[in-house]
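Our platform keeps sequence and structure together, in a single record for each protein. Such a record has a labelled line for the sequence and another for the backbone structure tokens. The tokens are whole numbers drawn from a learned vocabulary of local backbone shapes. The remainder of this section carries one protein's record, kept here as part of the documentation:
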Amino acid sequence: MLVDVSASVAPYARFFLELAYAMSSQFKQVRSFAFISDIEEITDAFEQGLTPAESAAEVSRRAGEEWMGHVSDYGRALEAFWARWGRDLGDRVTVVVLGDARSNGRPSSSWVAGELRQQVRRLYWLNPEPRWEWNENDSVIEEYAHHLDGVYECRNVRQLEHFIRSLT
């Protein structure tokens, strides 16, 4: 799970982090990563015996200290993920990106999504913005979409349930 924790998704970041926590507690070998412009593995934040809210607060604290003042740069984060962890992926892996795909005028590096899709079993994107805002202003979701197995609007439990039901 790749989780955008930038200011543009601040209202949803805790929801996404708690989702990552829930996934890690339900499935073996779930790894989670948080990014704004840099990306870091946060799996350990969910393994410390903390509650979901405490884990989300720990990740937010780390992001606030390490990435203060940064705006999201999906291209940079995805390239760094690919370079650092891409070889760990395989055809039994599902990657879920949680974020709004707002790259603030920076290159999308959508080629990384293409590389990921060739290497993994499934690649999904959960976007907290209303669908009508996709590809407006600095949103580059369409650049990623053709590499994905699915893009879903997801900012509440009902929409998350829709995504989960679509998987079965």
Q: What stands out?
A: The beta strands are 2-4, 33-35, 39-41, 94-98, 122-127, 150-153.
